[in-house]
C-alpha cells in the first residue's frame, strides 16, 4: 500500500491565478493535479480543503478508480464544474504518482503512444482582418500547422478572443467583471471575409479554426457554417450555448463545417447526446474540468465509437499541470484530433517546470516519469492570489448576453 500522507492546495498568481493540488505519499513520491476554474478559483480551493483533502489521508494512492468513485458517488451531489475540477485534481495527482512509481511517462500507462507528437493550434487575433492574417502568418512561420483566427468586428469596441497580448490572451481581466458589447449581425458577415483573406495569404496547406463562444442561435450557426464551407475550416467551435444538445441537430442538417464543443462541460452526461447522435466532430472537455483522466477517458471512448475526435481546451487558464496531463492523453488517445495551445507567460512556466516541448507545430509530453510537470512552491508563494473574473457580454441595447 502506498499511503497518502498529505494533500495540500497551492494557490499562485504568476500573472493569472492557478490552483494546484499536491498529494504526498509514505514512499516520498508526490503527484500534482490542476484544479483551476477561471474566475471561481477559491470555490474549488474550499471544496478541496474543506471536503476532499481530509478524506484522502491514509488511503492507498494506487487505488485511483476507487478514490474517483468515492469522491463522485460519495458526495451525493454529482457533476458541476467545482466538484469535477476538484475530483480532476485528485485523479491527475494520483495518475502522476502511479506513473512515477512505475518509472514511466504517463502515456505509457494509458496504452502507449499512438503518434509521434500532438498537433496543436495557436491563436492568431487582431483588431481587423489584415492584422489577424498578419498574426496568422507569424504563427505559420513559428511552425504551427493549425491556427485559430479571431478578428475584431467592425462597429464593436471589443470582441472575444482579440487582445493586445498576442501569444496568450487573458479574458479574466478585472476583479469585477468588465462588460463587452455584442452584435451578431455585425459579426456574422465578418468571419467569412476573414477566412477568405486568410486562405488567400496562407494557402490550403494549413488548418484554420474559429470560436463563436456560444453566441449564436442554431440557425445563425448553420448560416455561418455554410458561409465558411468554401474555406474548409478545421472546425467551428462553441457555436451555441450547448446546454441544449438538441440545438446541434439543426446546425448539422445545414452544414458540413466540422463542429467542436465542450470546454465548459464537466461529465460525459453533458455530451452524451451530442456524441451518440454524431452531432459534433470534436469534443473539447479537458482533464481539469472533466473529472480527470479517469473520466475524460470514458468521454473519449464513447466519442471514438461515434466518430468524434478529441480537441482539448488549452487556454492559459488551464495550468501547465493540466497541459502536461492532457498531452499524455493526446499522445495515447486513438481518436485524438487536435490540442489547443495558448502559451503561458515565462513567469507561469517558471513556477511550473515541465517536460513538454514544442517543435514543428507539435507538442510532446516528454519522457519524464509521471505527467512531467511539477510546481516550484517557493516561487509560487511569491505570487499571492489576485481576484479576477471573466467579463460579461451585453447586446447593443443593454440586454445581458452569452459570454
Ligand atoms: C478557448 C476558450 C477560452 C475561454 C477561457 C475561459 O477556446 O480557448 O474559449 O478563451 O474563454 O478559457 O476561461
Ligand atoms: Mg473556446
Key structural traits:
403 residues, alpha/beta, Enolase-like, domain 1, TIM Barrel, 2 domains, 8-stranded parallel β-barrel, 14 helices, globular, binds D-gluconic acid, binds magnesium ion
Task: Walk me through the structure.
The chain is α/β, with parallel strands linked by helices and about 400 residues long. The protein folds into two domains: about 5-105, Enolase-like, N-terminal domain (Enolase-like, domain 1, 2-Layer Sandwich), CATH 3.30.390; about 110-370, Alpha-Beta Barrel (TIM Barrel). The chain is built from 14 helices and 16 strands. A hairpin with a 4-residue loop joins strand 15 and strand 16 (about 400). The longest helix has 22 residues, at about 80-100. Bound molecules: D-gluconic acid (GCO) and magnesium ion. Magnesium ion (MG) binds near residues 211, 213 and 238.
User: What do the pLDDT scores average to?
Assistant: 97
- How many domains make up the 3D coordinates? 2
**N-end to C-end Cα span:** 47 Å
Oligomer: single chain
> Beta-strand percentage?
15-25%
Give the helix/strand class.
Answer: alpha/beta
CATH architecture of the largest domain: Alpha-Beta Barrel
**Total number of β-strand segments?**
16
Helix content estimate: 25-40%
Poorly predicted ranges: none
Please list the strands of the largest sheet in the order they lie side by side. 4-5-7-8-9-10-11-12
Choose one word for the global shape.
globular
Topology (SSEs and partners):
Blueprint: E1 4-12, E2 18-25, E3 30-34, H1 41-56, H2 64-74, H3 81-102, H4 106-110, E4 118-126, H5 129-141, E5 146-151, E6 179-182, H6 184-187, H7 190-202, E7 207-211, H8 218-228, E8 235-237, H9 247-254, E9 259-261, H10 272-276, E10 282-283, H11 293-305, E11 309-312, H12 320-332, E12 336-340, H13 346-351, E13 357-359, E14 362-364, H14 377-380, E15 392-395, E16 400-401
Parallel strand pairs: 4-5, 4-12, 5-7, 6-15, 7-8, 8-9, 9-10, 10-11, 11-12
Antiparallel strand pairs: 1-2, 2-3, 4-14, 13-14, 15-16
Helix pairs in contact: 1-3, 2-3, 5-7, 8-9
The protein binds D-gluconic acid and magnesium ion.
Amino acid at each position: 500500500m502506498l499511503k497518502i500522507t498529505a494533500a495540500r492546495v497551492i494557490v499562485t498568481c504568476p500573472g493569472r491565478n492557478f490552483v494546484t493540488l499536491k498529494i504526498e505519499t509514505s514512499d516520498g513520491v508526490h503527484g500534482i493535479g490542476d484544479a483551476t476554474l477561471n474566475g471561481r478559483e477559491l470555490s474549488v480551493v474550499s471544496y478541496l480543503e474543506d471536503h476532499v483533502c481530509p478524506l484522502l489521508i491514509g488511503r492507498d494512492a494506487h487505488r485511483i478508480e476507487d478514490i474517483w468513485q468515492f469522491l463522485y458517488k460519495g458526495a451525493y451531489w454529482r457533476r458541476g464544474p467545482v466538484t469535477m475540477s476538484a475530483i480532476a485534481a485528485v485523479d491527475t495527482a494520483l495518475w502522476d504518482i502511479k506513473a512515477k512509481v512505475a518509472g514511466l511517462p504517463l502515456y505509457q500507462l494509458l496504452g502507449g503512444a499512438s503518434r509521434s507528437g500532438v498537433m496543436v493550434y495557436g491563436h492568431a487575433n487582431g483588431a481587423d482582418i489584415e492584422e489577424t492574417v498578419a498574426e496568422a502568418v507569424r504563427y505559420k512561420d513559428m511552425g504551427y500547422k493549425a491556427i485559430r483566427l479571431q478578428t475584431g468586428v467592425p462597429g464593436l469596441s471589443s470582441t472575444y478572443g482579440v487582445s493586445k497580448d498576442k501569444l496568450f490572451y487573458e479574458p479574466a481581466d478585472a476583479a469585477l467583471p468588465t462588460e463587452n458589447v455584442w452584435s451578431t449581425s455585425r459579426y456574422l458577415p465578418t468571419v467569412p471575409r476573414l477566412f477568405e483573406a486568410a486562405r488567400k495569404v496562407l494557402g490550403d496547406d494549413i488548418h484554420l479554426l474559429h470560436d463563436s463562444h456560444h453566441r449564436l442561435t442554431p440557425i445563425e450557426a448553420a448560416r455561418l457554417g455554410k458561409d465558411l464551407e468554401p474555406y474548409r475550416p478545421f472546425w467551428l467551435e462553441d457555436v451555441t450555448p450547448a446546454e441544449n444538445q438538441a440545438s446541434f441537430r439543426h446546425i448539422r442538417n445545414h452544414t458540413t463545417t466540422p463542429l467542436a464543443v465542450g470546454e465548459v462541460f464537466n461529465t460525459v452526461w453533458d455530451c452524451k447526446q451530442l456524441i451518440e447522435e454524431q452531432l459534433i466532430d470534436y469534443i473539447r472537455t479537458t482533464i481539469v474540468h472533466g473529472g480527470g483522466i479517469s473520466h475524460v477517458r470514458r468521454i473519449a471512448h464513447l466519442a471514438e465509437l461515434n466518430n468524434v475526435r478529441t480537441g482539448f481546451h488549452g487556454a492559459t487558464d488551464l495550468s501547465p499541470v493540466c497541459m502536461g496531463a492532457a498531452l499524455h492523453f493526446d499522445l495515447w488517445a486513438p481518436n485524438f484530433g487536435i490540442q489547443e495551445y495558448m502559451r503561458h507567460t515565462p513567469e507561469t512556466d517558471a513556477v511550473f517546470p515541465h517536460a513538454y516541448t514544442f517543435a514543428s507545430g507539435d507538442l510532446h509530453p516528454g519522457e519524464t516519469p509521471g505527467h512531467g510537470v511539477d510546481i516550484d512552491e517557493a516561487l509560487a508563494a511569491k505570487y499571492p492570489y489576485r481576484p479576477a473574473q471573466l467579463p460579461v457580454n451585453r447586446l447593443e441595447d443593454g440586454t445581458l448576453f452569452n459570454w
